[in-house]
Amino acid sequence: MIISLMLLCAFIVICLLISSYQKKRNAMCKSKKHLNGRTAIVTGGTSGIGLEIALDFASRGAKVIIACPFNDEGIEARNRIIEKTGNRNVIFKLLDLASLNSVRQFAKDILKTEDRLDILMNNAGVGIPGDFQTDDGMGFIMQVNYYGHFLLSILLLPLLMRTGTESDKSRIVNMTSITRYIGSYDVDNYDKIRYWFKVRIYSNSKLCFVLFSRALAKRLEGCNVVVNSADPGLVGTKIYESCNVLIGFIVKHFLNIFFKNSLEGAQTALQIALDDKCGLQSGKIYENCEVVNNKFFDNIDTASEKLWERSIKLVKLENHELEFLK
């Protein structure tokens, strides 16, 4: 009994030390940039990290468009953002990233109603709810986390390009994850069902954002748009509840206490979207508000180009929709 208590106390002390170390390392975006007259889209801007990002943008005076596939959640989030920031220029639009038609309808609506787009925050994502195929013939996790965002980004690029200037470039922020390190370069098999462990599918989807950012950055050279990837770190959000509610609940609160909460997890993405220096770089990966190297990629260019070509086919982009890219 005494030994068990001693072990428990030792575990608690270790956790507290880890928490103290981690919390001190958690960088915060220090940009004072105002966003009056600017427009930002935040996918998944109705909960977790996305909601914190939307709140920050709204507090800076931006017109904020939050997008998710759930009407009640979207309306509730919109009302919360308005109440907390006093900014009434907050719009909720339905977007189901698991449907190419929904993505196209959303993009069409944005291009019709908005005269500018300064920031596209590709934040929405699912954990590992299941390995099944969507109506578009793609794996659900891959389509929501990556392919849907790929299509959305390409369709909105003309508006982003018209908005950006040499001194103030438009920005695309892709939300990656530490799990990218265990992602596979086997691009041709990314979309196979019952081929990967579900955790590996999620990891592949987050590696895709890094590869996509790399490929798109090359094609945007000389344009007034930059694209970078944000790794938020270990953040306690409800995404962990997608596999098992009880375990996910425990993991979420453990990470909240000892690593990062949603506000802390939003900081790197905010840094990329707001910091002046970040607007000078493209195709980079940021962790804890700083650029990290991508030397762990042996064949990043080969994998990026292969993913680019495969993504175009899977989301059924037409040649005329890509004419503006190099």
Roughly what is the average pLDDT, rounded to an integer?
88
Percent strand equals 5-15%
Instruction: Record the strand order, biggest sheet.
Output: 3-2-1-4-5-6-7-8
Stretches where pLDDT is under 50 for at least 5 consecutive residues are: none
Helix proportion = 40-55%
Report the CATH topology name.
Rossmann fold
Through-space gap between termini: 69 Å
Give me the strand/helix succession: HEHEHEHEHEHEHHHEEH
Return Rg in Å. Answer: 20 Å
Secondary-structure class: alpha/beta
CATH superfamily placement: NAD(P)-binding Rossmann-like Domain
Basic shape: globular
What is the CATH architecture assignment? 3-Layer(aba) Sandwich
How many helices? The count is 10
Please indicate the count of domains. Answer: 1
If you had to describe this structure to a student in words, what would you say it looks like?
It is a single chain. By secondary structure, this protein is α/β, with parallel strands linked by helices. It has one domain: NAD(P)-binding Rossmann-like Domain (Rossmann fold, 3-Layer(aba) Sandwich), CATH 3.40.50. It has 10 helices and 8 strands. It has helices at residues 2-25, 48-59, 71-85, 100-113, 140-163, 198-219, 245-258, 262-265, 267-274, 300-314; strands at 39-43, 63-68, 90-94, 119-122, 170-175, 225-231, 285-287, 290-292. It has an 8-stranded mixed beta sheet, with helices on both faces. Helix 5 runs parallel beside helix 6. The protein starts with a helix and ends in a 12-residue tail after the last helix. The relative contact order is 0.14.
